[in-house]
Structures are given as C-alpha cells and as structure tokens.
UniProtKB/TrEMBL annotation:
The keyword Lipid metabolism does not apply. The keyword Transmembrane applies. This is DUF4126 domain-containing protein. It comes from Roseateles saccharophilus. Keywords: Membrane, Transmembrane, Transmembrane helix. It holds the Pfam family DUF4126. Residues 9-182 form the DUF4126 domain. InterPro entries: DUF4126 (IPR025196).
C-alpha cells in the first residue's frame, strides 16, 4: 500500500516518538509491514524489510522486553540507549521522508532528522526519568505496569499513524504534553531524593 502525504507525515512522527520508547520493536514492526507489503517503504527504510535486519531486531526486542521488566536493569538499559535511541529515531524519520520532497529532499531530510531526534529524545527522557523514579519504590509492580504500557503504546501508535492519522496527531500531542509533565515532575523528585541522600545525617 502506497502512503499518502498525511500517512507519511504521521508515520514519520510515530517512528521518532516510538524509537525513544522501544527502538527495536519499532524497527521490527516497520520491517514486517514492509516485508509483507502492508506499506510501501520509502527507499531510505527498505533495508528494514531484510530478513537479517528483522531477525536482529526481533532478538534485541526480546532482550529489551525482558530487561525492561527488571528494576534497576531497566534504568541501566535506558542509560545505555541514550546514545542509541535518539540518533536512531533521527535516522528513521529522515529515512521515511527520503525521496519524498524532490529537489529539496536533502534539506527536508535534515529537518526530519532534527524533528525525529527531538521526538525520540522526549520519549526517551520521559521513559528513563519515570522508570528511575519508579525504581525508588521497593515493589516491582509499578515498573512492570509502566513497561507493559510502553509495549502496548508503540504498536498502537504506529498502527494509528498508518490507519487513522487524524486520530494519531491529537493523541501524539497529548502524549508529548504528558511526557513533558512527567519529565519535569520526575526530575524534580529525583533531584530532591539526591539532595536528601547527600544531606548530612543528624549527630
């Protein structure tokens, strides 16, 4: 299925956002959709439909699924992926718009990469800070619940971007607003926690 302009824009935004939460699952789902002909991948993303790329993405997605359910391991995984998710989100979004803008393709590719990186950074920062705050609680259930929410949100938002882009955009705006609030609240909470740990104990 060939993408129209609105679907292309929605999928580009969805790829950037989803990469900040579940990079390998995002790569796998896009690869599957392209491999089975559900969507016509642009030239910059056709490599994702390669069986080798899909196999590697599936293994890494499984590792991420398991690591994300274990307190502290999830935060270590997030810290490592600060260097991976954001540039990968930028690259995926740039690949999505490649060849779409004609003579201005290179300029639009840079703009797309900046926007994709920004969306991935926002989603990643919200995920990492929320999970770090949740790890201060001794019970594991909040962590598992937050992880499962991410597991469901990524395929749901990618599907909405393809099938119902007019529904996707308001939901993305809402998700970004919630994430911005969570980043502010969680960093404020974690900063207060660090200050408390550093404060000298009473004699």
């Amino acid at each position: 299925m060939k993408l129209d302009a609105l679907q292309l824009l929605a999928l580009a935004a969805a790829l950037g956002w989803a990469s900040g939460l579940r990079l390998y699952l995002t790569v796998l789902l896009v690869g599957i959709a392209g491999h089975w002909g559900w969507i016509a991948l642009p030239p910059g993303l056709q490599v994702l439909a390669s069986p080798l790329v899909m196999s590697a993405a599936a293994v890494l997605a499984l590792i991420e699924f398991l690591a994300d359910k274990i307190p502290l391991v999830d935060s270590a995984w997030d810290a490592l992926h600060t260097l991976i998710r954001i540039p990968a989100g930028a690259a995926l979004v740039a690949g999505m718009v490649s060849g779409w803008a004609g003579d201005h393709g290179q300029a639009w590719g840079i703009v797309a990469a900046l926007l994709g990186g920004g969306l991935a950074a926002t989603a990643h920062a919200a995920k990492a800070s929320t999970r770090a705050a949740a790890n201060t609680s001794p019970e594991p259930f909040s962590n598992i619940g937050l992880s499962l929410l991410g597991d469901v949100a990524v395929p749901a938002m990618l599907w909405l971007a393809w099938a119902h882009p007019l529904v996707f955009f308001p939901l993305l705006a809402l998700a970004l607003a919630v994430m911005g609030t969570l980043i502010w609240l969680c960093f404020k909470f974690l900063r207060a926690l660090v200050r408390r740990w550093r404060a000298p104990s009473p004699a």
